[in-house]
Specification:
The protein is an alpha/beta fold. The protein contains 12 helices and 12 strands. It has a domain at about 5-185 and about 220-245 and about 280-295: NAD(P)-binding Rossmann-like Domain (Rossmann fold, 3-Layer(aba) Sandwich), CATH 3.40.50. Helices cover about 45% and strands about 15% of the residues.
Length: about 325
């Protein structure tokens, strides 16, 4: 990847910060395109020297001309598109959610086409699926029917359709990845961010109540980021969106991992025993066939590393609690 230049949209978010960290550490030239300027998540997982190697391009992804200019300024040979508003923000302001998530994605494909790129890697979501009882028992296949029940899920489904049309009309291949419950430093907002907030609470000796429970796929942010990067490197033609699969666990197992990493938190982390409104387990066969072996950090290791990073950042004054 040393001869490539990556443009990362939404790099100020959790997954984006970890993507940038991994790209910089691999030696890749890295530029980020984001409307915001708050780099606190990047600073949480990167050193000042690493951050100094990143080129920042500020702009609004909903503006087609601005998106195209970001490609021109960066000289990008690879694009990882992560920009988007999450479930609560799309519910609060559906028109803005549609502009950022749907129009923004169309603009990225248009900019990629103008720049002559032949691959777009982008973030979709498990939110394209419906309720668990709308599917047969067992892991959900990547090509199971989409039945979204949120504006956010509808927007992500639209993006998967957009990607297919750019393949059919323009020959731009694409890989969309559908994360589930992503955790790790930087995951501080969104519907499923509570487990990470509980890890931060444990790091500072505070109690925390998680608003859901049940069984679901827990995915460490570093693994997810490395999978996005891996998707830019494998031979692939077509337009597909794949489910991510990592550690399928119950909330009680997550709390046990937090308590093992930080024994003083024992009895301080509680949860509501209600399921998330999505199928609890994804079939990971298709993504493995397309991308090869994927990074996988065991839950206990990822939780311990998350708490350690939080403690280190607090001690260094990089994270205000």
């Amino acid at each position: 990847m040393n001869n490539e230049t990556f443009l990362v949209t939404g790099a100020l978010g959790c997954i984006g910060a970890w993507v940038v960290r991994n790209l910089v550490r691999s030696g890749a030239t890295t530029a980020v395109f984001d409307l915001g300027t708050n780099t606190h998540r990047l600073k949480l997982v990167m050193s000042d020297d690493e951050l100094a190697q990143v080129r920042f391009i500020t702009g609004d992804i909903t503006d087609t001309a601005v998106a195209k200019r970001a490609f021109e300024e960066s000289g990008a040979t690879q694009i990882i598109h992560l920009a988007g508003l999450q479930v609560p923000f799309c519910k609060a302001d559906p028109p803005l959610g549609a502009r950022v998530n749907v129009v923004g994605t169309v603009n990225i494909f248009e900019a990629a086409k103008q720049a002559g790129l032949k691959r777009v890697v982008y973030a979709s979501s498990i939110a394209v699926y419906g309720l668990p009882d709308e599917y047969p028992p067992g892991p959900i296949a990547y090509d199971a029917p989409a039945k979204p029940r949120t504006h956010y899920g509808v927007y992500k489904q639209a993006n998967e359709g957009t990607a297919k049309i750019y393949w059919l009309d323009d020959g731009i291949s694409s890989i969309g990845l559908r994360p589930y419950v992503v955790y790790g430093p930087g995951r501080d907002q969104g519907l499923t961010s509570d487990p990470t907030k509980a890890m931060l609470a444990a790091a500072v000796g505070k109690p925390y109540h998680i608003g859901y429970g049940g069984r679901f796929d827990m995915q460490y942010a570093d693994d997810v980021a490395r999978t996005f990067i891996q998707a830019t490197q494998v031979p692939f033609e077509g337009a597909e969106a794949f489910n991510l699969r990592c550690s399928v666990v119950r909330m009680s197992e997550i709390i046990a991992a937090i308590e093992a990493a930080e024994p003083a938190s024992r009895g301080q982390i509680t949860f509501d025993d209600k399921d998330l409104p999505f199928p609890d387990e994804m079939d990971g066969w298709a993504i493995g066939a397309a991308l090869g072996p994927l990074p996988h950090t065991p839950l206990a290791e990822g939780v311990a590393e998350t708490i350690a990073i939080f403690k280190s950042a607090i001690a260094a004054g990089r994270l205000a609690v």
